């Protein structure tokens, strides 16, 4: 349910469970974490999905087995944030719930116009992943972070772009092409140059 394509220094990980809106099981999360940890060797990691949603978050059946509090969520987002190369979330549709963690950990977020972002932890009675509120606040500011986490608002792509949660909104047929375009300079540079510039941006 997680596809991995490698093209030199470019790795593309695709969530492929469209019949369940790419909702995440523990096995899927572990696989994504393994990919992110191994991608220390890559120059660019792109995360995307198949179907109309990037991910609806946690699988409802998996929620009954303790997945909401599993450390694998934080393992995944920590591995993405630690990448010395460029990480891009190419959102083919809505991102919800725990799936926000890996998206917030990416360096860039591009999305299709239909994409929305929401993180209904208040309504569901869960705490967000430990590092997510700080990452979200750095992107959109404290009031807007509360709008998402405490008021449970669904943020449209247009609003997300204005807030700085999304960096670019593109047509669906241009999503991966745009991600590859954004990756081009990083792919052409040496790993040392890439890591050096990324370090200056932290």
Textual characterization of the structure:
- With 202 residues, the chain is an alpha/beta fold.
- It has a single domain (2-201), classed as 2-enoyl-CoA Hydratase, Chain A, domain 1 (Alpha-Beta Complex).
- 41% of the residues lie in helices and 20% in strands.
- The protein has helices at residues 26-38, 72-81, 100-105, 121-124, 132-140, 142-149, 157-163, 175-188, 191-201, and strands at 2-7, 10-15, 44-49, 53-55, 86-91, 94-96, 108-111, 116-118, 155-156, 168-169.
- It is globular and about 45 Å long.
Arrangement of strands in the largest sheet: 1-2-3-5-7-10
Q: Helices and strands: which structural class?
A: alpha/beta
Distance between the termini: 32 Å
What's the architecture, going by CATH?
Answer: Alpha-Beta Complex
The domain count comes to: 1
Number of strands: 10
**Strand share of the residues?**
15-25%
| Main beta-sheet annotation | 6 strands, mixed
Shape: globular
CATH top level class name: Alpha Beta
By CATH, the superfamily comes out as 2-enoyl-CoA Hydratase, Chain A, domain 1
| Average of per-residue pLDDT values | 95
What Rg do the Cα atoms give?
A: 16 Å
Can you count the helices? 9
Please mark out the parts with pLDDT under 50 across 5 or more consecutive residues, or reply none.
none
- Please write the string of helix (H) and strand (E) elements: EEHEEHEEHEEHHHEHEHH
Helix-residue proportion: 40-55%
Please name the CATH topology. Answer: 2-enoyl-CoA Hydratase, Chain A, domain 1
Q: Multimeric state of these chains? A: single chain
């Amino acid at each position: 349910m997680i596809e991995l394509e490698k093209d030199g220094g470019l790795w593309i990980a695709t969530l492929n469970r469209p019949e369940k809106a790419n909702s995440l099981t523990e096995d899927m999360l572990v696989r994504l974490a393994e990919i992110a940890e191994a991608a220390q060797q890559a120059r660019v990691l792109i995360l995307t999905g198949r179907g109309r949603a990037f991910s609806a978050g946690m699988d409802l059946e998996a929620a009954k087995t303790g997945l909401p509090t599993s450390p694998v969520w934080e393992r995944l987002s920590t591995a993405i944030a630690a990448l010395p190369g460029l990480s891009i979330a190419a959102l083919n549709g809505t991102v919800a719930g725990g799936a926000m963690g890996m998206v917030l950990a990416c360096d860039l977020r591009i999305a299709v116009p239909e994409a929305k972002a929401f993180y209904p932890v208040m309504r569901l009675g869960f705490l967000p992943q430990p590092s997510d509120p700080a990452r979200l606040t750095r992107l959109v500011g404290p009031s807007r972070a509360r709008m998402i986490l405490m008021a449970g608002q669904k943020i449209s792509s247009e609003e997300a772009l204005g807030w700085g949660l999304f960096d670019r909104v593109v047509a669906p047929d241009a999503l991966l092409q745009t991600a590859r375009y954004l990756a081009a300079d990083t792919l052409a540079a040496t790993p040392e140059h890439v890591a050096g510039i990324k370090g200056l941006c932290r």
